[in-house]
Every structure is written in C-alpha cells, then in structure tokens.
Amino acid sequence: MVLLVGLFFAAALISGVLAASITRSISEPILDASKLANELVHGNFRKKRLPIQSKNELGTLSQSFNELLDKLQEENKNSKD
Fold first, then answer.
1. Are 43 and 58 in contact (CB under 8 A)?
2. CA dihedral in degrees (59, 64, 66, 71; nearest 10)?
3. Does the pLDDT value for residue 11 go beyond 80?
C-alpha cells in the first residue's frame, strides 16, 4: 500500500514537471510574439527578431512576425529618406 502511494506521488510529480515544461514551450513563443506585436503597434520597429525555435505552427508564426518586422523597418526607412 505504501509502495502504491509512493508510486502515485512520483507519477504525479513527473506529470507535473512534464506539463509545466510543455506549457512553457508553448506559451513563451506566443508571449514573445505578443510583445513584438505590441512594440510594433507603438511604432518601435527596432525590436529584435523573434527566435525560430521549431518548425511547427509557432515557428511559422515567429517567421511571419520577422518578415513583417523586416517590411515595416524597410517602409520606415524609406519614409525617412
């Protein structure tokens, strides 16, 4: 009985660590993209590019934001000339 309780708590601990890791790997790129979008809304086109950490949907989102940032920086530069 004690062994089962110990195994249950060990499994719960491992599950919690894995869930936190997965949640962080999903939420961090989304938060980074959100922060970049907020900077762009306020006219800050000098923001650093987003890192592309994967080839999934989040990586595609980061790549699209980087392309948008490139275009906005180019347009901003051309308008100042």
1. no
2. 170
3. yes
Give the count of domains, the chain.
1
Which two tokens mark 75? 């347009």
What is the reported pTM? Answer: 0.71
Structure tokens at 63: 């790549």
User: Are 32 and 58 in contact, with CB atoms under 8 Å apart?
Assistant: no
Report how far residue 47's alpha carbon sits from residue 14's, in angstroms, rounded to the nearest whole number.
37
**Domain range holding 32?**
2-80
Of the candidates 23, 1, 77, the one whose C-alpha atom is nearest the C-alpha of residue 46 is: 77
